[in-house]
Amino acid sequence: xxxxxxxxxxxxxxxxxxxxxxxxxxxxxxxxxxxxxxxxxxxxxxxxxxxxxxxxxxxxxxxxxxxxxxxxxxxxxxxxxxxxxxxxxxxxxxxxxxxxxxxxxxxxxxxxxxxxxxxxxxxxxxxxxxxxxxxxxxxxxxxxxxxxxxxxxxxxxxxxxxxxxxxxxxxxxxxxxxxxxxxxxxxxxxxxxxxxxxxxxxxxxxxxxxxxxxxxxxx
Length: 219
Known about the structure:
6-stranded antiparallel β-sheet
């Protein structure tokens, strides 16, 4: 009986030691969370700049109608992992006229749609902006560099729609092209034809998680 009691006590001691050892073990290493995405001004190629805004200092670029990605507003996406995003502000294009306002015929209405394509021509997504113009207060911005007394251009961005387009991990460049324009202005009804301005964009940015830098190879 004493022998069995001693064995039972020994088993309890060993079991207790195992439990203590398990408690002292270092917990499994958890992988570090991915870094937060970076948002930075995008590197773009603008085929037809409008100019710089007098209020915001932002650079504005015309978006032309067409289907050839090489002719659009091209945006470079830095090397990245996971899905990235292109962000920009979308505006209608309006030609301002004091004479039309004084004559009571300034009303204009615009609907513009732009498409974001891969450089192979695959559609990623679309953005749209719809605005109306009645008085100068409706303009979003005036553009410097005009010949008038105020030194601003007649063409001005109207409205401001924030657009966000998701970009797959394998894509490093996209193109923004005009897809549809429906405009009613004092000049009549306008639609998009190839090479014609459909809209205006500004404040183009990219959001992405940088791809890890590869270590240099051993010599």
